[in-house]
Amino acid sequence: xxxxxxxxxxxxxxxARNxxxxxxxARNxxARNxxxHGGRAAxxxxxxxxxxxxxxxxxxxxxIESSCDETGVGIVRGRTLLTNTIASxxxxxxxxxxxVPEVASRAHVQAIGPxxxxxxxxxxxxxxxxxxxxxxxxxxxxxALLVGVSAAKGLAAATGLPLYGINHLAAHxxxxxxxxxxxxxxxxxxxxLVSGGHTxxxxxxxxxxxxxxxxxTIDDAAGEAxxxxxxxxxxxxPGGPNISRAAAGALDGTGVxxxxxxxxxxRGLSTAPDLRNPARRHSFSFSGLKTAVLRFVTAHEAGAxxxxxxxxxxxxxxxxxxxxxxxxxTLFACEDTGIDHVLLGGGVAANTRLRERLTERCAAAGxxxxxxxxxxxxxxxxxxxxxxxxxxxxxLAPSPFDFGVTSSLEAHDVLIA
Length: 417
What we know:
- By secondary structure, the chain is α/β, with parallel strands linked by helices.
- It has helices at about 1-5, 50-55, 90-95, 100-125, 140-160, 170-175, 220-230, 240-245, 270-275, 280, 285-300, 310-335, 350-365, 375, 380-395; strands at about 60-65, 70-75, 80-90, 130-140, 165, 190-195, 200-205, 210-215, 340-345, 370.
- The protein has a five-stranded mixed sheet with strand order 3-2-1-4-5, sandwiched between helices. It has a five-stranded mixed sheet with strand order 8-7-6-9-10, sandwiched between helices.
- Helix 7 (about 220-230) crosses helix 8 (about 240-245), helix 8 crosses helix 12 (about 310-335) and helix 12 packs parallel to helix 13 (about 350-365).
């Protein structure tokens, strides 16, 4: 494999398995149909002053996220984050080199009850204190989504709480409503969402009723391209962190960063005709880049090409190609819409090179960049609770109880109605 041919060592996925939340699922035997947004004080019946104070603080909402391989449960009061519990099954997917939907679904089934119980304990609230429940209804893996939606429906049926089925993509943006270092969600904004399952550019006029998809990947998501390319280079899942480590020279014993210009890999949908085409100008394609890496690896292993190229050089060149097209098209979106604010979200936001290049180029273009804390960029329940709380605060009707999951839910469908 090229990892040996380029004097590098095989990377080992070193992400530690997140401890699964333990505990018993909270149950409430008495359903209540009428609930004031203030709810009931934890010690018993609420006084008038307590109810008024709680109402002023905003609705108390529990959010459930299960769209991929992380079981997330968050609790938000208004725009204050009380807890963000996450149980990940990432380590169970390492041997497969990527997320296996059936494995993810089974992990959600095991984790969801304990995660809800732990979140309630950490937030120091009881389930009967909640004002609403929110759950990701799409987009995502159908089986994984079903676990979260089924759990949320069970809680809602047992308690009489309103239930909001919400959009995963909108939630990634809404999380900035509750980030500790955030002055509040800025609108309008261009949102760049990059993860293992999604790569989109959105125009956000209002987080609930004005979201427009400007562009998306037409094949692999950026995170998926990282995972597949990592396998070509002999690196383990998850590909993103391991490619970044390789690019930094951390895997060949030298500690010398790779040259991002060593191999000129293609930038998908970036030719002049692509950029003149409104349907392609803000869209992405990473399949050609992945094929280019495969051809490079094959040629190198056959003894062709520059034998002085290191694993670090190839990894850095690939990473640069992905980052370059993400940043360039995001700034095109700013230019075309006249919006001078960008929010970065999704798991790939953890990529250091992406944050560096986006920071540099936004500053040069006079665009403000906002990156929420990294723990809130990956899939989590806090983002679902944040969007649910915003929807509840606007007194919107809850979702019909018979709603289903939609693996390809459109970005503008923020609330299942």
